[in-house]
Amino acid sequence: MKEFYKQLLDNNKEWVEKSLAKDPNYFADLAKGQTPPVLWIGCSDSRVPANEIIGAKPGEVFVHRNIANMVVHSDMNMLSVLDYAVNVLKVKHVIVCGHYGCGGVKAAMGNMSVGIIDNWIRHIKDEYRLHDKYLNAIEDETERFNAFVEINAKEQVYNLAKTSIVQGAWKNGQDLMLHGWVYGLNSGFVTDLNVNISSNSELDEVYQLNNL
């Protein structure tokens, strides 16, 4: 255990040395501030590294991660990240990226209790209920699982669009587009789910906030 921990510190030193060898001002420039064009909302899964997937450098992606890349309207952590990214950093794009093989989505499809996370997963179960006819018609279990991963990512994009933070930015004329992706663990490629929202006119009227 101690050797593993020491290796982490050694890895950091090696990374610093390599970075400075390429650019002596690398860290000095990073310390001046950040203007990332992208907010990434992804899963906590250790196999889904936001920067590496899209070939982005440090400073180019503002990141929020949780179990199953959820956008829950009462989650102050997510809302705080979103507010800062949109209103302070002025990001141009928000990407919700799910991934095939997501354990949180898989757990939501079953009935096994896995601890306190059951309360978080219930939000995903609510989505299954909304799409149960479509999902239950898919006989192959893997195909059904993959379809639900995609549905979950799409629903989170719409949940983003429903927030007062995003709608306020749109009303103020801010360029902001929301996107839904799914990442393939076994391929490395992302699938664009063709959910690209840039105004609240694409939402049901009941969700449109017109007096911001």
UniProtKB/TrEMBL annotation:
<dbReference type="GO" id="GO:0004089">
    <property type="term" value="F:carbonate dehydratase activity"/>
</dbReference>
<comment type="similarity">
    <text>Belongs to the beta-class carbonic anhydrase family.</text>
</comment>
<dbReference type="InterPro" id="IPR001765">
    <property type="entry name" value="Carbonic_anhydrase"/>
</dbReference>
<keyword id="KW-0862">Zinc</keyword>
<dbReference type="Pfam" id="PF00484">
    <property type="entry name" value="Pro_CA"/>
</dbReference>
<dbReference type="GO" id="GO:0015976">
    <property type="term" value="P:carbon utilization"/>
</dbReference>
<protein>
    <recommendedName>
        <fullName>Carbonic anhydrase 2</fullName>
        <ecNumber>4.2.1.1</ecNumber>
    </recommendedName>
</protein>
<keyword id="KW-0479">Metal-binding</keyword>
<feature type="binding site">
    <location>
        <position position="99"/>
    </location>
    <ligand>
        <name>Zn(2+)</name>
    </ligand>
</feature>
<dbReference type="GO" id="GO:0008270">
    <property type="term" value="F:zinc ion binding"/>
</dbReference>
<feature type="binding site">
    <location>
        <position position="45"/>
    </location>
    <ligand>
        <name>Zn(2+)</name>
    </ligand>
</feature>
<dbReference type="InterPro" id="IPR036874">
    <property type="entry name" value="Carbonic_anhydrase_sf"/>
</dbReference>
<keyword id="KW-0456">Lyase</keyword>
<feature type="binding site">
    <location>
        <position position="102"/>
    </location>
    <ligand>
        <name>Zn(2+)</name>
    </ligand>
</feature>
<dbReference type="InterPro" id="IPR015892">
    <property type="entry name" value="Carbonic_anhydrase_CS"/>
</dbReference>
<feature type="binding site">
    <location>
        <position position="43"/>
    </location>
    <ligand>
        <name>Zn(2+)</name>
    </ligand>
</feature>
